[in-house]
Amino acid sequence: VIEHGQPEHAIVTTCAYCGVGCSFRAEMKGEQVIRMVPDKDGQANHGHSCVKGRFAFGYATHKDRITKPMIRASIHDPWQEVSWEQAINHAASELKRIQAKYGKASIGGITSSRCTNEETYLVQKLIRAGFGNNNVDTCARVCHSPTGYGLKQTFGESSGTQDFDSVMKSDVIMVIGANPTDGHPVFGSAMKKRLRQGAKLIVVDPREIDLVKNSPHVKADYHLKLRPGTNVALINALAHVIVTENLIDEAFVQSRCDVASFNKWKTFIADPRHAPEQTETITGVAASDMRAAARLYASVNNGAIYYGLGVTEHSQGSTMVIGIANLAMATGNLGRIGVGVNPLRGQNNVQGSCDMGSFPHEYPGYRHVSDPATRDLFSTAWNVPLSLDPGLRIPNMFEAALDNSFMGLYVEGEDIAQSDPDIKHVHAALRAMECVIVQDIFLNETAKFAHVFLPGASFLEKDGTFTNAERRISPVRKVMKPLAGYQDWEVTQLLSNAMGYPMNYQHPSEIMAEIASLTPTFTGVSYEKIDELGSIQWPCNEETPTGTPIMHTEEFMRNDGKGLFMLTDYVATHERITPMYPLILTTGRILSQYNVGAQTRRTANNMWHQEDRLELHPHDAEDRGIVDGDWVGIKSRAGETVLRALITDRVQPGVVYTTFHFPESGANVITTDNSDWATNCPEYKVTAVQVTKVSQP
Ligand code: SF4
C-alpha cells in the first residue's frame, strides 16, 4: 500500500529496473516509501523517469514477499519455515555432501543482473574460493554475452563506448534490434529530443518499433525491416557500400586501427557477394534502402549506433556485434562525443554483473581464469588456491545435471525456470539436481525446483551500487530495513562461512574497496568518491580519477592500443521455416512491464498491460481465419503455448511477435536451444512456428 502525504525525509538511490539507471529520491514517511521522485541531479536521467521507476515499487512490500527461510527434502514436499541458521547450515551441508559424492566441480552458482555489484562480486568469490571451481555464470549469458565477447575482441573492453548525453551531438542515430521507447524509456526520450532537433534516424528491426513512425514528431528516415536472423548479412551489406563507395575514414583507420586486419577485412567485405543487391533476397530489405542508409551513416560528422537484444540473441550474436564495431571503426565513428557503439543493457546491472567476474572464464575486470598471473593475484588476495580451468556456462550446467555430474546450484536473484530458453529442458535439468538453493524476494518459478529458499532483499532494502549501460556506477541506498533481516550480500557471506570459506565484511563499501584493489579499471572507485561525485563511469583509476564518459578517445583498450577488424561471414541460423513451421517468431518488451514481470505484475498501479499477445500480420491472420482477439496456438519444434492474437502490420508477413512478461504465456516454452556460436547466448529472436486458431484454453 502506498500512502500519500508529506515526506519526512528522502534518500537518493538508483532505479532497479533497466540499464538507464535513473536516480530517484525515495521520499519516506518513517520506514515507508510514499513516493519515488526522479532526481534532477541524476546524471543518467537529469530529473526524468518512466512509469516503472516512478510508480512500480510497491512490489517491495507485496504480500507475496517471502521473509522466512525455508527448506524441504524433495521438491514434492511442502516448504518448511526454519531459522536462518538452520537454512544456511542445511544448504552448506547439502553442497558439501554433493561435492564429496560427485566431486568439487559438481556444484556452482548463477548471479543476477538485478543484484548489486557487491553482491555479484561476493557470489563469484564464494564459488571460486569457497566452492573451489569456476562454475559461476550470470543471466547476462542470455542477453549481452555477445556484447562482452565482440567488443572485447575489437575494442579491447566489454562495454559501450559513450555516455547517454553523447546522443545530443549525434547527426545520425542507427538503432539496431532495440526498442528504446519501451525498453529504455528515459534514454528513448533523450533520443527523440535529438531527433526532433534534426538528427537522422535509421532503424534496423523486423518490427515497426515506435521510433519508426509512432512517436510524436519522430519518423525514421530508413526502416530496414529485415527478416529475423539476417542481421549479419545486412551489416555486411552496409559495410560493402562503405568500402566500395570510398566512404572509409582512412585517417582514423590508419592512425587508430590494426591496419593489417583492416586490409584483410576490406578485401573480404568488398567481395560482390556482400553487395546489397546480392543480399536483399536474404534480408528482405531493398538494396536501394541499404545503400542509402549506409551512405547516410558514413556521410555525416557523427554517426552513433545503439543496439539491443535484437543483435545479441542470435546464433550469430557475437558476429553481429563485431560487424557493428567494424562499421564504426571503418567510418571513424568512435572516440569522441556523438558517435560510438552503444549496447542498451536490459536489466539494471547487466554491465556490472559482467564487470564483477560472473562469467566462468573471467575474473572481475574481464581477466581470463587461465592466466596464471591473474589467478595468482586473486589467489593471494583471497588466501586460497584457485582453479585455472574455466567453469561451466549455464547451458553446460543443465547438460551436466542431466549427466549426473552437476548436482548442486545456488541461484541468486534469477528466475532461470522462466527466463531461459527451451524451458522443458531447463526444468528437467533442475529436477535432476540434488540441491537447488534459490535466493529471491518471491517464490519464483525456479523455486518450484528448489530445496532451500533464502529470502532476498529488494533494492529498497540494501546498500550497494549498480552499473548502467554507460558504465556509470551509481549508489543504491537502503531506505528501509530488509524484510527478512538480511541484505543479499550478508546471506552469501553466511553461506560462505558455513561452507568453510570465511568472509567478514561489515558493509558493502568494504567489498567495493576489495574490488577496487583487484581491478585495474576500478582502482579509483570508492563509496566516498561516489558520494562526492554522485556517480562514476569506469574506467576510473590514476589516469582518469573522476571516471571516463567516453572511451577509446586516444587509443583502444587492446594491448597494442589499436582497434581490430574481424571477418564476419554470414551463416544462416539452423532455425528454418518449413511447411510445418512457416512463420518466424521474434520477441520483445513493452513499456509498462519488465522482463518476467515478477515486480511489475505485483504493482497494481502499473498493470494496464495485462497479458502477452501474439502480433500477426493481417495477411497471415486472414490465411488462418484469425481475427483480432482470437486465441491462437503457437507451436515450435521445442514446445507449444496459447496466446490471444493482435492483428497488426507492425510485423511483416511471415513474422510473428510477442512479449514475455507473463509466465502463463510461456514464450520460452517454444524458444529453441540454438545459441550464439561464441557465447551460447540463446537465439530467442528466431523461432520457426506454426500458428492456428484454437478455442479459449
Ligand atoms: Fe527505471 Fe529505466 Fe525507467 Fe529509468 S528508464 S525509471 S532506470 S525503468
Automatic annotation (TrEMBL):
Entry GO terms, CC: membrane; oxidoreductase complex
Keyword Iron: yes
GO biological process, one term: respiratory electron transport chain
Domain 4Fe-4S Mo/W bis-MGD-type per the UniProt entry, residue ranges: 8-64
One of the record's GO molecular function terms: 4 iron, 4 sulfur cluster binding
Domain of life: Bacteria
Keyword annotations from UniProtKB, A to Z: 2Fe-2S, 4Fe-4S, Iron, Iron-sulfur, Metal-binding, Oxidoreductase, Repeat
The family this protein is said to belong to: Belongs to the complex I 75 kDa subunit family.
Protein name: Formate dehydrogenase
Native source organism of the sequence: Methylocucumis oryzae
Organism classification: Bacteria, Pseudomonadati, Pseudomonadota, Gammaproteobacteria, Methylococcales
Complete-protein stretch covered: 229 to 925 of 950
